[in-house]
């Protein structure tokens, strides 16, 4: 299980990131200042750090060189090119500007962890009793399992990230384009059809429902 250290003095952002990362199977350590972050580093070995710059006490710029070889994604409201260049040259592997899209940030985290000590294999999503192991593209529930295609796994991951929410067709196509650039609005219906069949093979609880003229929703079929 990969460990991610979040260093951000904004409690709301810290908690949002902690909840999202924990749901995806990561171990998360939170720090709200530069000093607290250094204390946390003495107790844990994170696989990746999310670093805010505007920290009380030690700033993000002060903390960055103390993080050694751990990959660091800077998350900051500072949007100037000079700030981005300085952090990237200072050792950060990526720079995300606030406000940020959570799904984009999660994708960037996955990219950085991919191939590092097998961390990406921990990318697991769940809804009800169904677990999606994204890297192996398998779903499992109640002792049964099924193999998904790359496109089916990308669609299900997105719907699991937004449980109980109607996701528009164009939003699905846009969000999965990195994983499956060849999926179209016409072929999406076919992928959903096969994905529904595979879900029914492992559980009676979760299903994908079409919302006419809008998109799809992942919901508990027994509710």
Report what the structure shows.
37% of the residues lie in helices and 24% in strands. It is an alpha/beta fold. The protein folds into 2 domains: 3-121, 3-Layer(aba) Sandwich (Rossmann fold); 123-220, Arc Repressor Mutant, subunit A (Orthogonal Bundle), CATH 1.10.10.10. The strands form 3 sheets. The chain has a 5-stranded parallel beta sheet, with helices on both faces. The chain has a 4-stranded antiparallel beta sheet with strand order 6-7-8-9, with helices on one face. Strands 10-12-11 form a 3-stranded antiparallel beta sheet. Helix 6 packs across helix 8 (185-202). The longest helix is centred in the last third of the chain and has 18 residues, at 185-202. The relative contact order is 0.10. The model has no long low-confidence stretch (mean pLDDT 87).
Secondary structure class reads alpha/beta
Give the helix tally. 8
Rg of Cα set: 19 Å
CATH topology of the largest domain: Rossmann fold
**How many beta-strand segments?**
12
Based on Cα principal axes, name the global outline. Answer: elongated
**What's the helical proportion of residues?**
25-40%
Number of domains: 2
- For the terminal residues, how far apart are their CA atoms? 33 Å
């Amino acid at each position: 299980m990969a460990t991610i250290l979040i260093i951000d003095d904004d409690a709301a952002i810290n908690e949002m990131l902690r909840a999202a990362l924990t749901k995806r199977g990561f171990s998360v350590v939170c720090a709200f200042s530069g000093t607290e972050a250094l204390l946390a580093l003495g107790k844990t070995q994170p696989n990746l750090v999310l670093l805010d710059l505007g920290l009380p006490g030690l700033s993000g710029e002060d903390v960055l060189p103390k993080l050694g070889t751990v990959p660091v994604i800077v998350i900051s409201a500072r949007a100037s090119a000079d700030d981005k260049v300085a952090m990237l040259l200072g050792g950060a592997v990526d720079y995300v500007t606030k406000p940020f899209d959570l799904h984009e940030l999660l994708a960037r985290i996955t990219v950085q962890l991919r191939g590092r000590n097998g961390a990406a294999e921990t990318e697991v999503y769940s809804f009800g009793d169904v677990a999606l192991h994204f890297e192996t593209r398998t779903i499992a529930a109640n002792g049964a399992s099924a193999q998904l295609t790359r496109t089916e796994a990308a669609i299900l991951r997105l719907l699991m990230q937004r449980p109980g929410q109607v996701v528009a067709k164009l939003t699905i196509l846009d969000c999965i384009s990195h994983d499956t650039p060849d999926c179209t609005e016409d072929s999406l219906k076919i992928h959903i059809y096969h994905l529904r069949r595979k879900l029914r093979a492992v559980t009676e609880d979760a299903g994908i429902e079409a919302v006419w003229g809008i998109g799809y929703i992942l919901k508990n079929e027994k509710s």
